[in-house]
Amino acid sequence: MNTYVEKRVPITSCMGKLPIGIVFTDTDGSNPRIVRNITYRKISHNDIKRIHDREYMKSHPFKWAAMVMSTVVDNIGGVPVWSEFESGKMKYSAVPDIVKQLSNGDITFILFCGHIFNFGTPVNEIESVCTNCEKTNKKNIDLKNVEVVRFVDENDKDFDMIDLDIKLEDGYRFKSSEDDGEITYTNFVMDIPTLGAAIKYESLYQPNNQGPFYEKVYGDLIKRIYGDKGEIDANKIKMIGGVQIFNNITASDSRLIEKAINEAPRTEVALNEVCDYCSKDMDIIVTGGFLYPRR
User: Fold this and answer.
1) Where are the alpha helices (DSSP H) in 241-285?
2) pLDDT digit string (tens) for 189-230?
3) Is there a single domain that holds both residue 242 and residue 281?
């Protein structure tokens, strides 16, 4: 079995290489491989105006992220992004397919790197509330302190993560027919969440609410369920319904799934600072809304 370890590197040292990457295949679907190379572009004043559509960012956060990435990225693995986004009948609104394939761990990375490529690493006057004294601080931060968590193998090469194989504590209990006994399956194999999946169910999204949005997204990610007594393949999973499966595992197992997704290769968005009022340590959470200044 392939093994990997986490490796933390400064974001400025790896801007041209996605943490997770996209699976490319030949035209017949064979020869799957991970492509990580990414090239950015200099954006215009008109691009900035589209990026700063606050109402759109609030009402469609995932489509907004897709729009920003389609604007700041020239190509991924040689596949055009910006030129596709700016052309055609649905100019600036149709998300290129390759952008929809980007995983959660790559989305934040691209938003940060696109900013750095265009504006450098300083970001001024980020507002953040200290959890200790509950006062709002305005901080100037430097994105060169942002770390990217990459997975590498024993040769220090990027580990190709195609999917997630998650060991559950309680497992999924399934009875295939009236004549069969109930079988507990202990492992879920899931796709890594993509931007396309989030856009698909964006109307259900509510910040800080682990509700229908996550059930739908996570349900669609399930590829295979297996254990010592066999497996449930993709066709049967589709017949049962991923949401129904996800809703019938224990709460502790659902947290294990969320943990595995959150701990995939990623960009750490929390920067440690000292509160101006109480002098306690506080974390500044850098989000896309703080990036790409108007002037």
Assistant:
1) 242-247, 251-262
2) 999 999 999 999 999 998 877 678 988 998 899 999 998 888
3) no
**Domain of residue 138, residue span:** 5-157+265-290
111 within a domain of the structure (yes/no) = yes
**Domain match, 215 and 244 both:** yes
Q: Is residue 175 part of a domain?
A: yes
Rounded distance, CA 137 to CA 146, Å?
19
| E runs forming strands in the chain | 5-10, 17-24, 33-40, 73-76, 79-80, 122-129, 136-142, 147-152, 163-174, 183-191, 222-227, 230-232, 266-267, 270-274, 281-285
Q: Give the chain's domain count.
A: 2
**64: exposed, middle or buried (Cβ count in 10 Å: 0-12, 13-18, 19+):** buried
Residue 108 CB burial class (10 angstroms; 0-12, 13-18, ≥19): buried
- pLDDT per position as a tens digit, 95-151: 999 999 999 889 999 999 999 999 999 999 888 999 999 999 999 999 999 999 999
The answer as to whether 295 is a domain residue is no
pTM score: 0.89
